[in-house]
Amino acid sequence: MIHQDRELHEECGVFGVVGHQDAAQICYYGLHSLQHRGQEAAGICCECNGKMNIYKGEGLVTEVFDQDKLKNLNGNVAIGHVRYSTAGGGGLSNVQPFVFRTMEGSMSICHNGNLVNANILKQELEDQGSIFSSTSDTEVLGHLIKRQEGHMIDRICASLDKLDGAFAFLVMLEGRIYAARDKYGLRPLSIGILSNGAYVFASETCALDVIGAKFVRDVEPGEIVRVKDGKLLSKTYTKDSLQDKICAMEYIYFSRPDSNLDGINVHTTRKLAGKQLYYENPIEADVVIGVPDSSISAAIGYAEASGIPYEMGLVKNKYVGRTFIQPTQEMREQGVRMKLSAVSSIVSGKKVVMIDDSIVRGTTSKRIVRHLKDAGAKEVHVRIASPAIKFPCFYGVDTSTIEELISNKMSVDELCEYIEADSLAFISEEGLHKSIHFDHQKCGLCMSCFNGNYVTNLYDSFDKANKFEK
Amino acid sequence: MIHQDRELHEECGVFGVVGHQDAAQICYYGLHSLQHRGQEAAGICCECNGKMNIYKGEGLVTEVFDQDKLKNLNGNVAIGHVRYSTAGGGGLSNVQPFVFRTMEGSMSICHNGNLVNANILKQELEDQGSIFSSTSDTEVLGHLIKRQEGHMIDRICASLDKLDGAFAFLVMLEGRIYAARDKYGLRPLSIGILSNGAYVFASETCALDVIGAKFVRDVEPGEIVRVKDGKLLSKTYTKDSLQDKICAMEYIYFSRPDSNLDGINVHTTRKLAGKQLYYENPIEADVVIGVPDSSISAAIGYAEASGIPYEMGLVKNKYVGRTFIQPTQEMREQGVRMKLSAVSSIVSGKKVVMIDDSIVRGTTSKRIVRHLKDAGAKEVHVRIASPAIKFPCFYGVDTSTIEELISNKMSVDELCEYIEADSLAFISEEGLHKSIHFDHQKCGLCMSCFNGNYVTNLYDSFDKANKFEK
Amino acid sequence: MIHQDRELHEECGVFGVVGHQDAAQICYYGLHSLQHRGQEAAGICCECNGKMNIYKGEGLVTEVFDQDKLKNLNGNVAIGHVRYSTAGGGGLSNVQPFVFRTMEGSMSICHNGNLVNANILKQELEDQGSIFSSTSDTEVLGHLIKRQEGHMIDRICASLDKLDGAFAFLVMLEGRIYAARDKYGLRPLSIGILSNGAYVFASETCALDVIGAKFVRDVEPGEIVRVKDGKLLSKTYTKDSLQDKICAMEYIYFSRPDSNLDGINVHTTRKLAGKQLYYENPIEADVVIGVPDSSISAAIGYAEASGIPYEMGLVKNKYVGRTFIQPTQEMREQGVRMKLSAVSSIVSGKKVVMIDDSIVRGTTSKRIVRHLKDAGAKEVHVRIASPAIKFPCFYGVDTSTIEELISNKMSVDELCEYIEADSLAFISEEGLHKSIHFDHQKCGLCMSCFNGNYVTNLYDSFDKANKFEK
Amino acid sequence: MIHQDRELHEECGVFGVVGHQDAAQICYYGLHSLQHRGQEAAGICCECNGKMNIYKGEGLVTEVFDQDKLKNLNGNVAIGHVRYSTAGGGGLSNVQPFVFRTMEGSMSICHNGNLVNANILKQELEDQGSIFSSTSDTEVLGHLIKRQEGHMIDRICASLDKLDGAFAFLVMLEGRIYAARDKYGLRPLSIGILSNGAYVFASETCALDVIGAKFVRDVEPGEIVRVKDGKLLSKTYTKDSLQDKICAMEYIYFSRPDSNLDGINVHTTRKLAGKQLYYENPIEADVVIGVPDSSISAAIGYAEASGIPYEMGLVKNKYVGRTFIQPTQEMREQGVRMKLSAVSSIVSGKKVVMIDDSIVRGTTSKRIVRHLKDAGAKEVHVRIASPAIKFPCFYGVDTSTIEELISNKMSVDELCEYIEADSLAFISEEGLHKSIHFDHQKCGLCMSCFNGNYVTNLYDSFDKANKFEK
């Protein structure tokens, strides 16, 4: 596993393009730049004259697709998906996009996020005779759309309005793509335009940059957009009140530093969080180091604010891929450590500030602190660029169960002792908010994993989280 | 492609086992012995405490599964499938078994055959809100079962009774397998028992032999069986009249020579057909040769009846697999011919009787005759162990469109000239019937591809055959 | 392993083509048709303006090469090799062809056979400073050539004359191929010509047929040929006396039935051996069956001579490839048997004559007899189309050690009892000789594995056989 | 290709371990951490009771080896190699380690570097009858050792003393490893010790860290070491004068930032070079950015020295692997750019200082400058952390031909204009020297690619560079 050490997992990334003769290829490059959002599976579905050409498989985008497979994906409309996990027992049956076939035509859907009322909706659908071919929430939308009446846009809107939770949906049918975002804007979704006028939709703007698309704007909470005659049509699919509650962890952890979410650059927020972290929790030290890759920006911010030099005290092996043979327990005991190397010549004899983006179960932090001390660090002061995670996420982030969240069980002092650090501090919620919304453009963030203030009703999600077929 | 030269294609083979701790492995060996029925995809689904563990992929059984994948398929009930083709645009989404998930539990289904009223049923289901995730007929059964009421056995029976066409279905749920055969017995399905008392179901008896299972009996037309408390329970799922109309081409072409279908050995029927072919169409010649592999038995029969020696005048390269690089047109013109070699030292200067099992488009026969003449054969007399194929099959055999069936367009004399043979004769329908039912056990055979007397209503099948998404 | 049940193993097949723009492709098809001579590794080397383009790997020809790899092999001269085994500890380093590089140019060599004086020659070469990069005998020839003086043809001839043992060598350098056969003609080597005038060399004539080449003649024992200005030049490389002693097992076991060896068709000799076997060892029985694939011809011969019908009483699964998951011991005990199925409906209650080509360790025969009896055979009479193998082969056949040869330890009666047959008989040496040289063209055969009359001095081969690094 | 954009290429990395039961596994992890030194091929050779167990293949360490392959490599002594390129026409035949087999035993060798007198030595060896099986220089050492007399250590020393050029050699035989470095110390080679007392040798110290080995010391120029009875034995193999002339590009470009070369940390030298670059070539600007990954340290140094904030203005996609489908020309014209993204929100409207480690052909720099300007950068000032490369390297770095080195053809001003930068400056030789030898421990560096002062005679290397078979 590529990211086995990461303790938080985004569920997915989505990408779509409408009106380009090489739609599948554009999709390939777009998904490739969203690879950090999901490494376990990938799929692309292309529509050509009503026919859905689809290919999906387990592995990285570059592992799933080759030249031949891509060439077989004809059509000038395409949607694609990268998936973090194929857990759920269904293997490939849970890999997206999904295709739904009816006598009147086919529809393809992919989705980033998590629905909190999926079970309620599934039960209702089953009571009317529906059966499901996957354990994925995404299938629910297909069934709902089928059961509505009227124009397709109205059927989709009515269906979306029934959903509660976090989502960025792409629905492809009849040569069109419908792109929608949940009422709270929990998951990001951006719109871009290519030089030939083709519109693209992507979970992050880095995917727009990579394919040479110009950023147009973000899809708004509760909005559904589609392209008609080369123009972007917009509609609000619900009468519920809308909120700006994008997931804070998208900034601090999941997204690529070069992406802008709701107009705000990720690297910049991380660097500001690093500075804020210093202002809130200053320490005198010899060097600042960051845990690669996601904490580098924050570490540089901390260094700039403090005047303490930033150094590369931890180096990551970038060749750890799927086929890497894990060290046996015996090897590990002999000191084999593959992913992160602590650089002795940099930390030896030094007072080190170690910046990380988050602590989930605490085991990773504990191990890194030990590595640094083994490499000769005199003191290790841990500074975390997010508040303590005390509550599980139901919006598409896999944070393990509530019992595994160490900040739920330990005070900061206890945790400091547990990870064997010389001091430990988290950024405050206010500090994080200020780092992200430094320019006051937006005012909302979902911080439920820090404070338990969930932005939606949770229905049976707590139960489902525990009973779900794994 | 492994069998690219074959002009007829069976759609599938099915296998199931209930009550064995190594169910997935048993299934692997069973499917492996049914590999000749479908080389394009394979899948196994195992049930373990209500959870469906499934793996499927494109390629041969040995390519799709490895040790690790097999080990992950826990459970003591399993069904599996080999598929001839992934055509239909859906790629892996059409590979079986299918899994249907509901809040009350999961169900897995696989199927050999073809339903003639699938479109009518699909339309009815859609009108009630169903959507489909594949283009396969098999999904229809899952939807029907979901919409029935009462005990599971009654729901399945009521659903099967709605189906028209050819099928051998395996339905797995709640730790049980239900095995059913269509009302006409068009597709074969046999029952066996392992030494530990576990029951197995297989498209052909060769799969029973290979896993060391004892043959119990065949599933009867219109019958559904299941195992309860170690005993076989049987039920007729329909009040319609039942027929014995097993597909004649199963004997002459599709099945393995060591299989028995409805109690009759395949090799034996082929050899008898070869003898009958001689009695009906004798010729004086120097050698009898068969087109490998399926026509060898008939050729030996012809040789025995005629007293003309059987020789190996055509040799097939057995290493032509999926990754074989096809000769370019240029190479082919230079004489590169990979699959069949005509043996000059055997046929040169000889009057040759060439036995083949069937003629579909005529191009293969023409090519083989030319090979033999290039290798020095003085005369080539072609004898075909099946009657002329003049009508398309709607029961699970891919015979191309009616326009491509050369016997639909040419008389025997014209065809003889077209394939450049010195004489050509087909076995008569009566002769074939006699060869298969030599022991009078059974009295029916589906010969619709020879005479157009279809055993079912065809509904919209003719249209569907032409319009179907390929 | 594909042929794990075979108890005899040919070491290799060679193929070469000179003067064709698609030399590598021609080579690919040629090797593919020689695949039965070696399934463990394959390689092709092409010369283009003095540069050696080579690719080799473990696996079948179709597994080692793909379109891209083949395209990279530029040049209009090519030699290739299929290898039975990569044993010897060197892995890929023992896969042929070998390339030898010097400042004056490069040379590529491949080889079928085994040298009996390799160790002596290696020691002499080492004493002069040579080192070896493989454990293969083939390298010896390269070193010898390097150390001769004069014209290249003279250097090669002088080197070949130093070799003792069995070989068919192809040496490629300076745009030419030199093809040579040992002084006894132990290993076969044929010459063909393509329609464009390009000459080809192949271990068996089936490779000529497959690429559309016309058979020209066989290379003679002690002869070296090369093509100059489109003409075949021939030379005898030795003053030693020459013999016609082609390996008898090439006819009875290794070669493809459609090949002609020294002008004699393999299938024909096998069928004659089957007939002879009947004349020498008649038995009254109900059916004759052959062990597929190599014993089918002999079985048909036996059936024709005896008037007993030939039936397909044993069926082989043709899909057992490299990635096949072997049944566990437990599975095997439960009766899982993948490679050969005994057909109950054919043998049950019958007196069966089972024809096989050879008995080496006896375990396979024992197992097949048991299968047949389990399937209901009343009596099983085993007839072997070769004499009893009592001596190891030092000429390129891997017959295991002398201790493992069961006919070395048991009389025919004891062996009959051991394999649990009702009777057992081998063809006589005279009978085999007559079957092969039915037309009196040639008069010699190497039968050393039957009678211990080795055609060469053995030097240290007995020792080497036991001490050789495996 | 993973590193297709890199314009400089190190040839290899070597790793060895002596006296550990899991030698092959240790080697695997060691090589994995040296992967940045060569991504095209990898090999491991293990000695077990005189038998060489070897496996090698094309691709990354994780692609070449799997669990099974590693398990087959028995023995408690092992050497391994990663290789930058399989160029040379020999494919796998050039992949190291090499094994040389003689009647007295086997020897395995691997090598990082390049010999300048290889052709002279090869010619001498050939005149004595040697032939070569690869185009690699490494084979020369094997031949030389074979032709010496006396104790093995003396034979190896005498052979090494004949070599001129850059090298780190590992020679394994008789259960021992001999590790040697060239007389100038051009290529690095370090010694470490595991907790069980096993010694390891590695091109870089990062490989010691990763396997939990303690750094012992570097092998000295002209030194050969081996382990006997758990102790390190050292010998100087030459009477020539020795120099400290390690390759400057090892610091600035090739090595991992966490490695120490001759006791000096790579990241630290890079950061100092960045600072020095500022002192020599200051500029007022808004942001400093580095070209990932190798220029990040220098960029941070420049930022610290200048007080200009360091930002992540260029982001690299870390998932670009071997199977990545390259954009077509058409795609590229539409703006698809996969490897580096310029971050508009960071550079737009800004005066940017862009730090890179080197300029070879200039095309990469030109493209990055254009990306930054396309992303809105107002000005781009390029600062290079190495002096201008004007001369080819003959010591194991593939710098292309002299004609392709743009600094050989253009002045700094011309080059600035060519890459469309607003200003361009290189660090001075003195500045670089000072950055690396900041602590005055060592006094020599090979800077021949900057100033043409080659540390060795070049023999025919200039010619060879042009005539070498590619």
From TrEMBL, chains A, B, C, D:
Pathway: Purine metabolism; IMP biosynthesis via de novo pathway; N(1)-(5-phospho-D-ribosyl)glycinamide from 5-phospho-alpha-D-ribose 1-diphosphate: step 1/2
Top enzyme class: transferase
EC number: 2.4.2.14
Binding positions ([4Fe-4S] cluster): C247, C393, C446, C449
First and last residue of the signal peptide: none
GO molecular function: 4 iron, 4 sulfur cluster binding; amidophosphoribosyltransferase activity; magnesium ion binding
Cofactor note text: Binds 1 Mg(2+) ion per subunit. Binds 1 [4Fe-4S] cluster per subunit.
Gene Ontology BP annotations: 'de novo' IMP biosynthetic process; purine nucleobase biosynthetic process
InterPro entries, per the entry: GATase_2_dom, Ntn_hydrolases_N, PRTase-like, PRTase_dom, PurF, PurF_N
Coiled coil: none
Claim: Magnesium is one of the keywords in the record: yes
Positions annotated as active site in the UniProt record: C12 (nucleophile)
Keywords for the protein's UniProt record, in alphabetical order: 4Fe-4S, Glutamine amidotransferase, Glycosyltransferase, Iron, Iron-sulfur, Magnesium, Metal-binding, Purine biosynthesis, Transferase
Domain Glutamine amidotransferase type-2, chain residue ranges per copy: 12-230
Catalysed reactions listed for this entry: 5-phospho-beta-D-ribosylamine + L-glutamate + diphosphate = 5-phospho-alpha-D-ribose 1-diphosphate + L-glutamine + H2O
One of the Pfam families matching this protein, by short name: GATase_7
Cofactor section: Mg(2+); [4Fe-4S] cluster
Family: In the C-terminal section; belongs to the purine/pyrimidine phosphoribosyltransferase family.
Entry-linked HAMAP family: PurF
Role summary: Catalyzes the formation of phosphoribosylamine from phosphoribosylpyrophosphate (PRPP) and glutamine.
Protein name: Amidophosphoribosyltransferase
Gene from which this protein is expressed: purF
